[in-house]
Design a protein that fits this description.
This protein has 79 residues and is of the alpha+beta class. It is built from two helices and five strands; from the N terminus they run E-H-E-E-E-H-E. The protein has a five-stranded antiparallel beta sheet.
C-alpha cells in the first residue's frame, strides 16, 4: 500500500465500534497511536477493506476501518 505519515491527533467521537469514545481513545493510545508517531499502511482486507494493517513505531497492528477513522494523519512528503 505504501501510505506513510505521522499522527496529528486522535478525534474519537461516537461511532459504531461499540466502545465509548474515551475507551477507544485509551486503547489507541496504549497501542502507540500518539501524536507525532510515524505510521505506514501495510495491508487492506479484500472485502470492504477491513481490517487494515498499519505499522506504528515498531509494531504491526490490525484495526477496523471504523477505528482507524479516529486517527488523524498528515501525509509524509515523498522522498
Amino acid at each position: 500500500m505504501g501510505f506513510r505519515g505521522w499522527i496529528h491527533a486522535l478525534s474519537v467521537g461516537s461511532d459504531s465500534t461499540g466502545l465509548p469514545g474515551a475507551e477507544l481513545e485509551r486503547r489507541l493510545i496504549e497501542l502507540g497511536f500518539v501524536e507525532g508517531a510515524r505510521v505506514e499502511l501495510l495491508h487492506e482486507g479484500l472485502f470492504g477493506g477491513d481490517p487494515i494493517a498499519v505499522r506504528v513505531a515498531q509494531a504491526t497492528i490490525a484495526l477496523r476501518r471504523q477505528e482507524a477513522m479516529s486517527i488523524m494523519v498528515n501525509e509524509e512528503a515523498p522522498a
